[in-house]
Design the sequence.
């Protein structure tokens, strides 16, 4: 089974909680749109989002961690995200997952992930080499042919034991304690150094959403868009990733 872990920011630190909820609803619809029933979604949040979508495969795990503004001002968002991912991964054990995937609360994932993962339950895991970038409310996506995992946090599928979960997890630590769960671009290298390399996912695995105010890490101004990588946002892409338009 594949378990998705989605860390969601608090309404107290969101520029627009309504917008965060809209984007999250699209993300969780995408995660639940799998072609295989062998998946679960764990959402770790300070407060449950205000959305209409429900699904029996979703678990909301509410936490009372200190708000990011009350922690280290240098890495406050990262620390909150790391705490939530760790909490979700620990909780995932009750579903006996073969693999887990951290998903940013604004991105979309391919509907084929769970079906693919269940075919290889002993595999170390995969990194998303190919994926799409999407700027909100446009009619195109941009194909990233390699190294997608370096730019997007929705990019690593790990065999559960390779999360290296602490025996006695703590949630009052600083950035360094959680960095393995945050630094998505480093996970591949870390596991290669340990002799447990990840394989490239053999298809485009996610869509990285750009260009809205509450995205801490992604801003369309920080990315180049190569015309030759531009693809029409077709019905098949929308359906595979459950990518709906948000006004």
Sequence:
């Amino acid at each position: 089974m594949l378990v998705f872990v989605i860390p969601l920011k608090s309404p107290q630190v969101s520029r627009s909680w309504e917008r965060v909820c809209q984007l999250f609803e699209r993300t969780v619809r995408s995660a639940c749109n799998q072609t295989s029933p062998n998946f679960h979604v764990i959402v770790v949040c300070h407060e449950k989002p205000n959305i209409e979508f429900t699904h029996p495969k979703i678990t909301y795990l509410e936490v009372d961690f200190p708000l990011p503004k009350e922690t280290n001002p240098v890495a406050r968002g990262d620390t909150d995200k790391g705490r939530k991912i760790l909490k979700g991964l620990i909780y995932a054990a009750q579903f006996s997952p073969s693999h887990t995937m951290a998903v940013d609360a604004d991105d979309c994932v391919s509907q084929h992930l769970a079906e693919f993962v269940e075919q290889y339950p002993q595999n170390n895991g995969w990194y998303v080499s190919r994926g799409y970038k999407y700027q909100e409310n446009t009619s195109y996506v941009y194909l990233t042919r390699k190294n997608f995992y370096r730019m997007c946090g929705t990019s690593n599928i790990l065999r559960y034991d390779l999360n290296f979960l602490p025996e006695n997890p703590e949630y009052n630590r600083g950035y360094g304690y959680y960095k393995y769960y945050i630094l998505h671009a480093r996970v591949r290298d870390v596991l290669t150094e340990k002799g447990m390399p990840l394989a490239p996912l053999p298809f485009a695995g996610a869509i990285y959403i750009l260009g809205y105010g509450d995205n801490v890490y992604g801003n369309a101004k920080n990315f180049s868009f190569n015309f030759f990588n531009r693809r029409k946002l077709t019905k098949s892409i929308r359906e595979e990733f459950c990518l709906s338009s948000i006004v």
Remarks:
- The two ends are 34 Å apart (CA to CA).
